[in-house]
Structures are given as C-alpha cells and as structure tokens.
Design a protein that fits this description.
Layout: E1 7-11, H1 20-35, E2 39-42, H2 48-59, E3 64-69, H3 70-74, E4 84-88, H4 91-101, E5 104-107, H5 112-126, E6 134-137, H6 144-155, E7 167-170, H7 173-181, H8 191-202
Parallel strand pairs: 1-2, 1-5, 2-3, 3-4, 5-6, 6-7
Amino acid sequence: MSNSIKRIAVFCGSHTGVRHEYLTAATKLGKLLANNQIELVYGGSSVGLMHQLARSVKKHGGKAIGVITRFLSEKGLAETAIDELIVVETMQQRKAKMMELADAFIALPGGFGTLEEIFEVITASQLGHHQKPIGFANINGYYGLLLRYFDIMIEEGFVNPKHRNTVVSSEKVDVLLKMLFEYQAPVYQKYVEDVRDFLNFNVVDPD
C-alpha cells in the first residue's frame, strides 16, 4: 500500500450494535491497520466498537492513539491498554485533535456522535480545509440510506455534485481501505467561487 497514509481516524459506536457483523468488521479493520503499519486514531473509549477496534489493533501489534474528553475519562470510560491517550476538555477539541492527527477517516457503524464526527470532517473537506480521504464502512448496508440521501441532497440542489466524490464507501473494510489509498481528491475551485457558481446555476427569480 501507499505510504501516504500513516494514521487513520476511525469514528464508531460506543455500543456494539445488534449484529455480529459490526464487531467482525471492527476486528478485521484493526488487524488490517496493524498489518499495514497504519496507526489508529479513535475516540479513546473502553466500550463498544471503539474498544473492539483498539483491542484488535493492539492484539496484532499496531499502535492506537485515543482522544477523549475529561468528562468521559473521569466516568471511567477511557481505554488504558493503548499507546497514547490524549485528554481534552470539550467534544469540539476532541474532533479537532482527531482531524489534525489523521491522514484519512473511516466511519464504522455508530450513532449520533459518529455521524457528527464524520460530517464535520466532510464539511471541512467541502470548505477546502483538507483533502484527506473519507470512507464509510457500509457494513450490512448500515449507511445505505445515508449514502442515498447524499444523492437526494444533490438532486434537490443543496449539495454541489462536485462534492459527491468527497466520500467513498464499501461494505468490506479491506476494500474500503484500498479505496482510501487510491483516493484522488476532487479538483474544484475555491469554495467561495464554487458556491457562487452553484447558486447562480440554481437561482430562481422571485415573483
């Protein structure tokens, strides 16, 4: 694999979900990261898919870096069996630190927090703050409706079609990882010019 990606931030649930496929995917992704000498950046939790992922990375000889808020750490939810735990004060700082540390991003199945985290990364890419690869692990079709909704946002005129290829997805974590390494960032204008052209294209004069 390419050596351009040294660390991947993985956003995922603090629960394991109801399907064994989610745990299997987290375990396999952890092994893949370790075997390819890619460091894991994640939410630092000792529960749910986050714990399973970090555990798999460490089991297979990889490095895991956790970023957690002081509030969650003081609740006893911080993972201790990892290489580095970074404690921050707010969720905003947590997301910013993970974005700073990572060269690419993956969303495994998760809840509201996972969606918030991955959407902030997508928005930052749209604004031109980074051009790092972003992938959805669509395990058992978990993100199928969301990915379809991306197309609806384009169809309804709220997202520029040029930004659809900002994210990639696959139901298999090994395929997704390969897609991230082969990712070519979309080439488009600066965001302000892009928005202006998009709005001009979609403008409707009021009566």
